[in-house]
Amino acid sequence: MSRASASRLAWLAGLWAVAWVGCTTEGPPVRPAPVGSARVVYVLPRNLPADTLVRVSSTATSAGVSYRTELQGSGPVRQGWLRELPVGRYDIRAGAFDALGTSRFETQEVSVELAPQGTALIVLGVKDTSAQAEEESAWLQAVIASAGAVLPGDTVSLRAVASDPTSQDALSYEWQAQAGTFDDASAEAPVWKAPTEEGSWTVSLVVRDSRGTATSLSFPVEVSGVRALSGNGSVMLNRWPQLGELSAQPQDEVVVGAPVTVAASGKDADGDALTYQWTAECEGSLVDGSSATALFTPSAVPSEATCNNCQLRVRIQDQHGGSTSYGLGLCVRERRPPTVLATSATEVNAIPGEVLRFSVSAVDPAGGPLTFTWSASTGLVDAPVLAGGTSEVAWTSLSCIPAGGMPTLRATVTNLAGLSVDVPFTVNWNGPTCGHAPCVAELARDLVTFRDNCTTDTPVFIPDGFTLQGEGHTLSAVDPAGGSFVGAILRNRGTTAHVRGLKLEARGLVKSGACDVGEDRLRGILLLGASGSVVDSEVSGIHRNQAVDGNPEGTPRGCQEGHAIEVRNPAAAERRAVEVLRNRVSGHQKVGIVIIGDVDATVVDNEVRGEGPVSHIARNGVQLSNGATGRVAGNDISGHSYTGNDLGTGILVAGGAYYGLELCRDITIEGNTLTDNDIGIYLSQAEADGSGPATSTRLRVVDNVLSKGTVTNGFPFQAAISDLGGGNLISSNVITGTGYDPETQPGATFDVDVVAGDAAQVMFLTPTRTVAAGACSGRVLVQSQDVKGNLVKPTLATFTLTASGEAAAGLDFYATPDCSGPVLSTVELSTPQAETAFYFKAPSQPGAVTLTVSNGSLTSSQEQTVRAP
């Protein structure tokens, strides 16, 4: 007899015994109500921290009566039993709670029919109740088996409960088992026939939606002769990996032989580690095909010529058998070089310093990006500017080109396949050829930067609007073979130019014959008709020697050229503004810094060395003429001294009809140090007859320090300050040295020499002041002047000081800034600048007070204010 038959007989015998014992003569036997049971399995996410949940329970409800059981376990699987419940239909649900009693996971309600004496298997999938959770995979809510344990060869009714979280997509089902057969393995509710062999057999289900997302569930069904459900066996719910991103870089169009980087990023709701595997459905090679990022290089164009003719597929797999495949379409095209659409040039004729612009527009037949590279046979090429499929570049040559051919530029356009096309341009050069290698420099937008020392025998031009950055390198001018250097060594091309940090020199220049005139005159740096600046540079040796037979170096020439820095703007032209700051100038032939014409100049903190006295030319340190204006301040100017019948000057202001020039007006000359110049500051402006300007030119010469220790000029005439009489302010300058002392050579050496009329007024040179009661005032400066405002010593040089007004009582005058020492009642205006300074101590009472300076015939007053302390 088989074990199954014996079991059945034992069961019948037991039933008979129960019936017999319970049989009485009072009525039919009482039969117990039929009952059923179920094993409930609750599957949580595998990546859930172990201490997240404290309680998991399941509830079965039928006809308003609920039965609850606590589910036990410590991992992602929690299980329990619903035992001996009345048979019938039950609604089953479960929930998981954290330490605060908050529901973290729950199941949808599913219906189960409990059969008499049967033990169903209910596997429940969870749904995260947190607001942040996003379900993207098909949600497998439950799998219900009519029995978790069956006899060999018996059948089990299975039913899947699933839904799609993002849409109402139709779902597909795929059932599998280690053994046994399904009546329909793709049905939502198939029947599984158990194998004849006993054992615990794994049944699995994969649910997919139309987007390819999937969830799988595997659980055991026990096949034995006693149909007993032990509750053992592994249950696993696995949400299969999904695609986060899929991309091709630099783009999804690629030519044969050009590599493309393909990248996939997967995401897994269970937190599983993912692996990747790439395959290609067209000819080509894959590198790193088993990583998230691979490199694919097509080797042939697929037969289908349209886009997406090459499919790459990536399979993303987790460690529990879940995998999903995704496709990426590439457009593979033939290798073809770029197509040039257009070329342009602003101009093809060039002179030194002129900037030409060239552009090339092109397209890649494969639609990929292009690279543009530019080169030139000579000259400077700017960094190209790329806009869309057009590349533009600037080109210039600063001075000359090598002999032997015209400059050529070449644009090379290259695509990702490495195929390129060349676009040549030829420049018609209308400038000189080089006797030396061109300067090594870089062109970058509005900047020219020297990268080495440079020798030139032709002028170097700064392009319009550019700054030449010397970086401390030296630009040296030499004579060309068989000739002489002509013109300015460095000059502007256009209306704006700047020079920074350059060393510039003339080296061994010689010339015989007549002096050069006009544009051919030698200059170091020339800004002609331009605004701009010359800053932090050094200019030296800007002179020529006279070529003499047997003496190749010659002797110094006296030609009126050799200006180190020259700024020139024609009169009546658009006014220009120029800064000349912190430069060092030496060895110039005629003028260190010269400003000529309609220019507003700022000449500040320069060092100008004349290296005199000399006998061949009268040099000037700084010169402003022919209508120039501006400010000359903080400069250190020395050594402009001539031993012939002329004068060297430290600072010269020249203009007026006498010279055929415009008058200069409104120039401030202050805070300069002038040493050993024949004339320190010479205001040489005159009408046609040689007299001073008819109207005041309003020049201010203040707070300069002037000195000369010896008499060197043979004219003879030396002066610290000389003015032909322009009604200018000359005040508070410090003058020392025997060379400027009138007593050294009376009539030939002067401290201040101003052509002026008789003293006609005494003027307060300082503004009105407000002084606290009891305090010492600031300096009060008064000067004796003629009717035009020229300083002049008065015949009666002693002036009395008086005060009047409501605050005059108790006011005293002093010679010292702290109002100490003896009280003054008179001052002397017999000083070289016909001026004197004094201070007053305000009385204790506030109010207005009028100060008066008078010598009886000349009187002037100024009101001051005393305020309460």
UniProtKB/TrEMBL annotation:
SUPFAM superfamilies noted in UniProt: Pectin lyase-like (SSF51126), PKD domain (SSF49299)
Full protein name: PKD domain-containing protein
Top-rank taxon, per record: Bacteria
Organism whose genome encodes this protein: Hyalangium rubrum
Domain spans labelled Right handed beta helix: 572-692
Organism taxonomic ancestry: Bacteria, Pseudomonadati, Myxococcota, Myxococcia, Myxococcales
Record-annotated PKD domain positions: 148-216
InterPro entries registered for this protein in UniProt: Beta_helix, Ig-like_fold, PbH1, Pectin_lyas_fold, Pectin_lyase_fold/virulence, PKD_dom, PKD_dom_sf
SMART domains in the cross-refs: PbH1
